[in-house]
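Try this one yourself first.
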């Protein structure tokens, strides 16, 4: 076949439609041999923010670029990076975090091949990256005070259950919950601030709300007992530690860059009030670009003056997986995980694992989620540094996702194989 006269084609393999956390292969065929080609990717999130990446390639002797084999020679990343056009996507609007509100529609990633010499568009294709496998149910939950969304996998239940909570002020996020459900778990994405009538700026958090949510979830016919899992990140990590300390029926907790003590708001439970750790604003730093670095403002919770804010994690009877990013600039996650491990160990418990990611930032999301090094912080009221480098952050997200699935399968009794 005469490659010079053939049509240029951009292929997304094995299919242009896949789950958001799945890897694809991008190939361009029918190019002139050894000619430069630019590959571009673009998506628009639910806020209307455009995310873009671009990389320079050179066609091989057969007029082909296969990103699984060919190195990028420049642009958003360099070297052989099969998913580089996805993990290096960066917002056109600075300090913006990728937002996907509900997961009924896929994220559309446009991939284009352009001539490296003229800039002319040669071929394009769209990768539909979805969140729900066929037959999955997405059920909005508004029962009593509880607000959230329940995801139920296809097939005959009941399924091992997980409560998924996100960050302070984040309302509700569905991508992680839906992708966990794609792996055979019933998942309740639980909101606890500023969502569908939930208080936006309360003076304190009512812990009985979390207790009600766990009770509700455990009694759903789709949820297999006896215990459930919790996955959390940032402020919700504190809530997950509190839930495991005070509530029964919790078997496995994933705490991603969380804290072993109460933060941001006092927590009320029956006649107990757990004060918040008071941040030391004097320790804020301002970067050259005007962002706030708050990493060192949250104090060590085991110091005498802070101990009232500690949750009694030693009372927990679950297994813990603490994920720690060493370049987390939201707070010192490594120290907090160390403190949690010390308390558990000192109480004769070895029911925890700490996994550490050097150079990763605060937000460890599902695989191939665009990296967020800085954005608005609801508790600070300003744009802050969250840390991390895109490539290592992406690698950490991939690794952690596999560890999370394995952790929940082994401790919640789900024997299904993951559709990674």
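Now uncover the answer:
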């Amino acid at each position: 076949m005469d490659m010079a006269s053939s049509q240029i084609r951009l292929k997304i393999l094995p299919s242009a439609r896949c789950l958001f956390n799945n890897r694809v292969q991008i190939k361009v065929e029918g190019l002139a041999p050894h000619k430069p080609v630019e590959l571009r990717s673009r998506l628009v999130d639910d806020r209307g923010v455009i995310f873009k990446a671009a990389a320079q390639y050179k066609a091989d002797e057969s007029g082909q670029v296969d990103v699984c084999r060919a190195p990028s020679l420049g642009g958003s990343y360099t070297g052989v990076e099969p998913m580089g056009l996805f993990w290096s996507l960066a917002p056109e609007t600075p300090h913006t975090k990728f937002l996907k509100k509900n997961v009924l529609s896929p994220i559309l990633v446009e991939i284009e091949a352009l001539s490296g010499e003229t800039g002319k568009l040669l071929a394009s294709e769209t990768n539909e990256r979805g969140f729900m496998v066929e037959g999955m149910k997405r059920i909005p939950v508004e029962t009593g005070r509880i607000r959230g969304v329940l995801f139920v996998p296809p097939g005959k239940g009941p399924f091992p259950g997980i409560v998924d909570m996100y960050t302070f002020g984040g309302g509700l996020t569905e991508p992680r919950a839906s992708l966990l459900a794609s792996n055979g778990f019933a998942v309740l994405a639980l909101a606890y601030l500023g969502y569908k009538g939930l208080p936006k700026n309360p003076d304190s958090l009512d812990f009985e709300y979390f207790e009600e949510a766990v009770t509700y979830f455990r009694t759903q016919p789709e949820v297999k007992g006896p215990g459930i899992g919790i996955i959390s990140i940032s402020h919700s990590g504190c809530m997950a530690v509190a839930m495991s300390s005070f509530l029964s029926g919790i078997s496995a907790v994933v705490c991603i860059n969380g804290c072993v003590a109460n933060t941001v708001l006092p927590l009320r439970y029956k006649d107990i009030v757990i004060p918040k750790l008071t941040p030391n604003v004097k320790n804020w730093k301002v970067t050259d670009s005007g962002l706030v670095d708050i990493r060192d403002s949250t104090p060590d919770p085991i110091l005498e003056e802070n101990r009232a804010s500690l949750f009694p994690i030693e009372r927990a009877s679950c297994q813990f997986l603490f994920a720690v990013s060493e370049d987390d600039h939201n707070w010192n996650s490594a120290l907090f995980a160390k403190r949690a491990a010390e308390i558990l160990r000192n109480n004769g418990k070895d029911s925890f694992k700490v996994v550490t990611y050097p150079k990763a930032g605060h937000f460890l999301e599902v695989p191939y989620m665009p990296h967020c090094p800085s954005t608005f912080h609801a508790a600070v009221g300003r744009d802050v540094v969250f840390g991390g480098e895109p490539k290592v952050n992406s690698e950490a997200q991939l690794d952690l996702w596999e560890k999370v699935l394995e952790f929940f399968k082994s401790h919640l009794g789900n024997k299904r194989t993951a559709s990674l």
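Discussion: Residues 151 and 396 are 25 Å apart (CA to CA). The first strand starts at residue 9 and ends at 13.
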